[in-house]
Amino acid sequence: SKKALDPSRLDSSIGALLQACRSSDPLFYLEGEPIRCGDFVAIYGEDSALPYLGFINDGKISPDGKIEVLWMYRQDDVSSGVISREEKRLRANGLWSPLLSGKVEVFFSFHRDMCPQESVLEKLKVVVTKEADVVLHDPSSGRPGGLPKGVLLVRYVYDCSKSRIYSIRSRDFQCGMQAVLDFAMEHYPYDPVERDEKDVPAVDPAASAAAAALPTAASAA
């Protein structure tokens, strides 16, 4: 069963520990692909029609062949009432951006479980970002950037013990938890869409001239 991660285990050295585990030998190979600490993976669940989503949070396999994961939550895993309430709270603090499709955007969490190594189905492609304006990649535009098809997006953290949602932008997490998020943002960054000149709003010459004629604070003094 899912349980809250003991905050005392998340000290300030967790970021360095994750980095060390990331650069060490793989935990195991899945159809020839290395699986490491810090990977996002799909995990088989007997009681779920869809695979669970997890973040491998430890650099070793237990003696009984299990790995520690932090769960990701799909939007359908969180009640619509909670999402609506938390949207209002975060929006009031300038920390909310509209969620993308439930098939695309998921919530990070600090709830953990020990899962059999054999239950890992595949490695997932994920972007973790504090960017407010995230758009899907549009191949027809001919421009790079944006969220590619088949990639999951994480911008919020869900605390199931309190039924609260937190923006990654808030940086109000305990130091160890923040280190985990910083690690994830560093290794799974978002590539913004490059803007064309035509996307930049045109400047009205008359408005610019009028603005230039206004007295500055210095001249007014």
Q: How would you characterize this protein structure?
A:
By secondary structure, this protein is of the alpha+beta class. The protein is built from five helices and twelve strands. The protein has helices at 14-23, 80-92, 175-187, 205-213, 217-220; strands at residues 3-4, 28-30, 33-35, 40-43, 52-56, 66-74, 105-108, 111-116, 120-123, 126-128, 152-159, 164-167. The strands form two sheets. Strands 1, 4, 5, 6, 7, 8, 9, 10, 11 and 12 form a ten-stranded mixed beta sheet that branches. Strands 2-3 form a two-stranded antiparallel ribbon. A hairpin with a 4-residue loop joins strand 11 (152-159) and strand 12 (164-167). It starts with a strand and ends with a helix. Mean pLDDT is 83; it is low at 1-12, 197-205 and 207-221.
Distance between the termini: 67 Å
Kindly state the number of beta strands: 12
What is the overall silhouette? globular
Q: Would you identify the regions where 5 or more consecutive residues have pLDDT less than 50?
A: 1-12, 197-205, 207-221
Number of helices: 5
How would you state the average pLDDT, rounded?
83
**Rg, please?**
21 Å
Percent strand equals: 15-25%
Helix content: 10-25%
Structural class: alpha+beta
State the major sheet: 10 strands, mixed
Order of helices and strands: EHEEEEEHEEEEEEHHH
